[in-house]
Sequence to fold (134 residues):
Amino acid sequence: MNTTLIDVVAWICIRDRQVLCARTRGNDVFYLPGGKREKGESDWEALRREVQEELNVRLIADTLTEVLVVQEAAHGYAEPTQVMMRCFQADYRGEIMANSEIEAIAWLRYTDLDQCAPATQRVLEYLYQQQWID
Fold:
C-alpha cells in the first residue's frame, strides 16, 4: 500500500513556556499554525502566507530557523495518509488573533497533548524534551 504524504510547514511560537496552537472551524484538535504550500512556494513563502492568513501577524524573514521535521499519521485522513511537517521558529510583528478559518487559538503545554493532532503531539514532545515548554 502506497502512503500518501501531505507536505506542510508549521510555525513554532513559544511564549511563557507554552506553544501557540490553532483549531480550524469544524476540527476537533489543535494544530501548529501553518499549512500546505501553494504551487511554486518555498517553505518560507508558504509559512509567511499561512501564518498571516490564520493569525494576522507578519513573520520576520531574517529570524527564520528550522527546528525539526516530523512525519506522522494525518489527522482526519484515511490510512495510510501521513503528514510531513517542516517546523520553523521566527519572530513576528503584530498582535496574534484568529482570522476567519480559525475557530480557536490556545497556548498549550506538554500536558495538553491529547488536544492535538498526531504530528503536533510529536512536536510538543520534542519541545518538552528540549525543555522549551512545560
